[in-house]
Amino acid sequence: MIREAEGWVPPILYRRLLRWSDALSFRSYEKRGILSKNVVLKGICRGKRAFVLATGPSINQQDLQTLGGEDCYSISNFFLHEHIGIINPRFHFFAPYHEPLVLENYIEWLQFADKALPPETEIFLGHSTFPMVDRYRLFPGRKVHYLYLSGHPSNCDVDITKPVLCPQSGPLMMLPVLLYMGYDTVYLLGCDHNNLKDYKKPMEHFYPSSKDVRKNASDENSWDDVTNTMKQAHNLFSQYDFYKKLYRQSGSRIVNLSNDSWLDMFETNNLAEIINRPTAYPDCRPKVTG
Hints:
Helix content is about 30%, strand content about 15%. It has helices at about 10-25, 35, 85, 105-115, 130-135, 170-180, 225-250, 270-275; strands at about 50-55, 70-75, 90-95, 120-125, 145, 150, 165, 185-190, 255, 265-270. It has an eight-stranded parallel sheet, with helices on one face. A two-stranded parallel sheet has the order 6-7. Helix 6 runs parallel beside helix 7 (about 225-250).
């Protein structure tokens, strides 16, 4: 009902109504217990560095075997990478189901990923995926975390036990988690976001499209009309700007290591130089008690 009011309600009032609606939805969410478990991650990697691994074609220009032993976090189809066992991501993220994906096929994709990911890798999902995991018994034997994804974060400080910004693209789902964990520097790999140059053509990734289990994920059917596509692009880059400011406020930073990316709001570097820098970071895995 509230979203139908857009156009005849003053913009300021409309935004307040949306924020009120999102806050009410969170307060009435019955599974908030699955979010409170995230508190064990708060600040456990303070001062360390992390690597975000997305699926852009620039990944093929990187020697990712050098990431063995680093704190790596992957998204979506990155489990298709030939060196996934060496990289051994700590967490793997999946964006929630959305059209034009096929629901049954999306479930099949999650099951396929479970078999491909290293056994130590934990899973991060949006809260709307919880009923699906519960019903189909997905990811048995793995630790699964959830984020409550909302159009309006709970406050200016990231708290993954409360609503966080619903991401326009998968890598944006990872940034609040890594900030909450206290990482000093987050390096982006494969976050190219330059697919607008190929509008209405199949989207490119580091893997051939024939390996993607999902239907309608990267072909011509995945595009919206040009007006909505441009709005989505603007929202995507605005969300990256949002996290750039949050990281800066916390004394952390985001560095883009992709050599073919449109994320020019971040400082850049190259993977080889970063890897060759000495590290002396303590282990930051959650302490097991009991």
